[in-house]
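Hello again,

I reread your note about wanting to compare the complex against the isolated chains. To keep things tidy I'm splitting this into two emails, and this first one only covers the full assembly. Below are the input lines as submitted, including protein chains and any nucleic acid or small-molecule components. They are followed by the predicted structure of everything together. The single-chain runs will come separately.
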Amino acid sequence: MSHGGTLLFLIALLPFLGALFPALMIRAGRNVCAVTTAVPTVLALTMLLVLAPAVFRGEVIQAQIEWLPQLGLSASFFLDGLGLLFAGMILGVGLLITLYARFYLSGEDPMGQFYTYLLLFQGAMLGIVISDNILLLLVFWELTSLSSFLLIGYWKHLPQGRQGARMALAVTGAGGLAMIAGMLILGNIAGSYNLTDILQAGDAIRASDWYLPALILILLGAFTKSAQFPFHFWLPHAMAAPTPVSAYLHSATMVKAGVFLMARMWPVLSGTDAWFYIVATTGLVTMVIGALIALFKDDLKALLAFSTVSHLGLLTMLLGFGTQAAAVAAVFHIINHLTFKAALFMTAGIVDHETHTRDIKRLGGLRHLMPITFLIGTVAALSMAGIPLFNGFLSKEMMLEEASHTVWAGSHLAVPVLATLGALLSVAYSFRFIAHVFLGPVREDYPHTPHDPPFGMWASPALLTVFVIVIGVAPFLAEGLVTVAASAVTGADLHPHLKIWHGVTPALWMSVIAVIGGAALLSLHPKFDPIWSAARRPEAKAIFDRLVAAVVAASRMITEGTHNGAISRYLAVFTVSATALGWIAFSGSGLSAPTRELLPVPSVIAVGWIMLIVATLSVVTMHHHRFRALVLIGIIGLAISAGFVYLSAPDLALTQISVETVTIMLLLLALHFLPKLTPKESSNALRIRDAAIALTAGAGVGALAYAFLRRDIDTISDFHIANSYEGGGGTNVVNVILVDFRGYDTYGEIIVLGIAGFVIYALMDALLNGPAARRLKNTDYSRDRSSDRHPLMMVVVTRVLMPIAVVVGLYIFLRGHNEPGGGFVAGLVIAIALLMQYMASGFAWTQARKRVEYHTMIGLGVVIAGLTGAGAWLAARPFLTSAYTYVHWPPIEEFELATAMLFDLGVFLTVLGAVMLMLYSLSRIARFAGETVNVEPMDYDPGQQATDNEVKH
Amino acid sequence: MEFVVASSIGVLTAGGVYLILRLRSFPVILGLALLSYAVNVFLFASGRLAVDLSPILSKYGDASYTDPLPQALVLTAIVISFGMTAVLVMIGLGAFFEAETDQIDITAQDETDPGASKETDA
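Full-complex prediction:
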């Protein structure tokens, strides 16, 4: 990867790495925290500047790492003019906002959190503008929605903040979903998810039948993000956020993401009638409506929010025109809007901070009290109004010029007139911002007497207004950046000339009309204001709330209809749906002819089959007698084990039979505490319904099994059989698969088993420390107990059996690699041997002789297995690569040593530990329930009372 | 033989499904045990049936073997299903001790419990 590519990766990564620190550094004080936040931004900005000369030369810097190539997803970034413009804006304004927020946030606000969110957002936004892969872009896109949710809702105690955050997330998130679909279509048409490839495939995409759906879906994403009508309503509500957030997200960056996307996709999607009519019209309507509402808003930030909506509409409209000159104007206006709007938001924040109100009706006359703020605010507002010598004028002229010769559905007048109207309204609300806040007489009734804030707070907006004036006076300074960005947008080599005086053009006249009309409109504002307030308008928030309420009600109805708290209903719904889906899948394409011959059924097997069927039916019919049902379950398990033996699965048979044993013991222990009978409480109808469901499901599964049993498949097992001995060093292929080929799976599985053991232990602990414990103590289980609980015969036999069982276990463990057996079975066998001791000689007697805690055993097992796997790294092999060798030790036959054996030891220990921990936990309940424990192994003495030898717990 | 295995799977599934639809915890646990059998045998059978072809490599030249992969998968599945049953039993026991009943469905009376009241939108 090139030098530039590495830098680009670092730029993408830095904000996310940086996000880890502010929350920690806040302990060192607010200044340190702010500086920590600035460091990654400054670094990234420096790197960007290092890369900038190459971009200005027309190079595109690329960086790529394959991530999921099967999905076409790669972590690839590229930096061209457009990316450079946006990345510079995001990082530059980010830095200013970091400084501003340091002074804006009060001592009670958790500043570390704020900066962490801010950097997360910055990283996500940066990711959008430099992603070369649209799937990656979508990931970052959603990340901006999420991180802006956190930022908007930063003041968690304010209901408006929470509602605004939810609304923003719902609207932009929904748009994002639509966009995912659109992008996938686009990628499908282009045959690649890389933007660079897609940008080349413009003709194919525009010619495709899927162009219109893709366009609409992508535009939904862009329009919601950039607050275009009719999705504009979330932006003003997001103003409940702290002002630094509004200045950053809602003027400079996030809302520009939609515009960025339209600009990025411009060479691919624009140039069609559909593009023009959807995008330009939406932009135009948004521009006018946003400006109109802005004029009548009394909240400073709401005024700015709607003016942002209006300016975003302007940008959208320019991109919608589809001409190169309009694209240049759009790019230039993006820069200009950023400078004056961020400055205005910060000014509004300062006013709010100083006077404790943002209500324009309570303000006025501030120019005497806050001269610096007045200067900054006025310069920025004049630029927004489009007054000459400020940068807003230049791009607005270009916009009007483009509008003046745009024909909309045959009409030469519609666009120019509406664009002039938009500009006029824009002048009116900009003047209002100046006149009603700063001009007029000084008032006595400010909620708080204002004065200019400290330097740190006005430094950021002041710097931005310097840009406003410099670009406004000497536009050629911005020419380089506009040229590369506009060339990147259009894909053509453009050389625009930015200048103040274009001669007497229609645009100039439109501008003059706008300024005079705007000033006149403002003078009439007091008259219009009551009319506007009295007029009935659709309130977007109310509509949104009703919509959300309707969706919630519908979801609740479905949820409560299906999930009413009755687990039997969920299971029924699940079973029926699964069966129905299976049926649909089956009826899709018929069955091929059977290819396998039927195997004969020997009479022994037939007997076993009949046993199994009868036992299952008996379990179902007699399940009310729980103990009987348990015995029958044992029969079924044995029949299945026998089946495994016959069908060439000795390992399974061994495992099944030992698991069967421990399962039955477990259920017996549990049954001790549970009622012994299940009451008959289901109605006949319910039983018939359940039987119908069960029979259908059973018939379906049985038929499916029969269908595939009659047909051959391609199996990958030939590989395992061929390599088992050569590669894994064992002849028992099943065991080699477990400990070698699929060792990773097994490793995961023993961890799950270990966790299950701990879960049971924890559950029991919680139970014995909860209210249930009292009840347990007061229940009398004594009538269930035999007076001869530890019979002599059983004690003796199990003692004798213990060493034999251990030897059998060891034998099964050692031979596992080559013959049926292995860690799983050995662990179960030893567990059964130990359990027999518990049962025969009693809990306390056995417990006293236990040397290793079962918890430790589980941990040891997992660690041994893990270390064995990691050992392969020492030999520079992947995790869990096994090695083996043959050892010749004179008195013993030649034998094999494999690392897989060590792994199997880990499996063995985990299984043993987990099984023992589970059953041990259940027995602990028994002790808690007042069961006495014996001190001596055999506590029965016919000559004495049973209690003499017993110690109450 | 194929019919024997397939019908066993079907009967075990049907029995298991019927039992998990019961209203008490113990039959449900039994039902899940039956379903575990059915699923394990089903998975095992996906390697097709073979008699006397154990996947233990023969020392004497070429021999054919049954498919070992489903066996390996089922082996761990059997052990894991034991773990699952154990956790369920523990939860069932805990619920029985806490509620003094082993009914598994939430009744109308539980719904009015203030602790279980629905979250109201702020």
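For quick reference: Chain A is about 70% helix and 5% strand.

B.
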